Amino acid sequence: MIPVFVSLGQSKNPVKRKLEEAIISELGKLAAFDVVVIPNLYDLSAKSESMTALQQVTGDMLVFSWLYQRSTHWILDRNGIHGKLGEVQLQSDDPDDEEDSAPDDNDEADEVSRVIDQRPLSDRTIYCLDLRVADTAADFVAEAERIASELSGQNLDQWIQGEPSEQQQARYQQPQNDTALGPNGNKPNTVRIEEAAGRRWYPVIDFSRCTNCMECIDFCLFGVYGVDKAETILVEQPDNCRKGCPACSRVCPENAIVFPQHKTPAIAGAPANNEGFKIDLSLLFGQPDAADMAAQERDEQLVLAGRSPVEETPILARRQSETTATQPDQLDELIDGLDTLDL
């Protein structure tokens, strides 16, 4: 049986609650799944009962939440729940929200060393499903069944290619565990973990993009970031983060820092897409760029905390000078892009 975790959202919207309960009910009727209902994943502490239940799963699993797939995956990862990101075919109809699994054609980007490159490959897969991409439980149940069929085929192939012992064959033919189906096809009820989980706000690092450049730890002045024994960046004190402040996400040059509950998709964990010709029109009309906005947001939080704002950030000054010296401005890029169009 495949473990399925349904993470309830923060909202009390009756439409969302109805969808959650419909998915829980329908999946609970299927013999292929063990369903566990937990509070909002992002709000869980590392030692909570729900997180412990997630950590106890060692094989493949499905996680439903009201978050982007990328955010869910790296929230799990920061809590020691590692695995390959499974392919989910159920995606949003909005092309801007679709998960981009295609490789980046930028050769220069491929040469950059990412933190994930230093990690051992996981032998299990975690499928993260975003509850916002469809309106009916039937769509999610169908996708869960497709994934289960895919996993069953893989497991059966592995079993056939091996040489099971007599004990393994006996267990396969007559399961002794209490979750196995009985003669009448009954299965245990869906498990609900009821625990208080207050709303939290903290950054989540996407190590498939992070290059360990340390700009976030240099920029943040609230003690949120630290390093491990291998000198790799980590979110050491998540609850030191100032609620509503996404400044460090804006200064990250690799878009590797996400705030899953932020209203801006790019900051909340929407797929990072480097393809296509894009331009930030706000720069052409005098609006501040991401670095200036980040500094302003951080300084506002410093003042609220009773501390003095930073007059100038060396790391930002260096980045801005390097950008000015080596790259054309946004208007130049727009003109160059128009020149390449076949009009």
What does this structure look like?
This protein has 343 residues and is α/β, with parallel strands linked by helices. It folds into 2 domains: 2-192; 212-253 and 277-340, no CATH class. It is built from 13 helices and 10 strands. The chain has helices spanning 14-28, 49-55, 69-78, 107-110, 137-161, 166-173, 215-219, 247-251, 265-268, 281-284, 290-304, 314-326, 330-340, and strands spanning 2-7, 33-38, 61-65, 84-85, 125-130, 191-192, 204-205, 225-227, 233-235, 257-258. The protein has a 6-stranded parallel sheet. Strands 7-10 form a two-stranded antiparallel ribbon. It has a two-stranded antiparallel ribbon with strand order 8-9.
What order do the helices and strands come in, and which of them pair?
Elements (H helix, E strand, L loop, with lengths): L1 E6 L6 H15 L4 E6 L10 H7 L5 E5 L3 H10 L5 E2 L21 H4 L14 E6 L6 H25 L4 H8 L17 E2 L11 E2 L9 H5 L5 E3 L5 E3 L11 H5 L5 E2 L6 H4 L12 H4 L5 H15 L9 H13 L3 H11 L3
Helix count, DSSP H or I runs of 4 or more residues: 13
Whole-angstrom Rg: 23 Å
Low-confidence stretches: 100-106, 180-185, 274-285
Beta percentage is: 5-15%
Short description:
With 343 residues, the chain is of the alpha/beta class. The protein is built from 13 helices and ten strands.
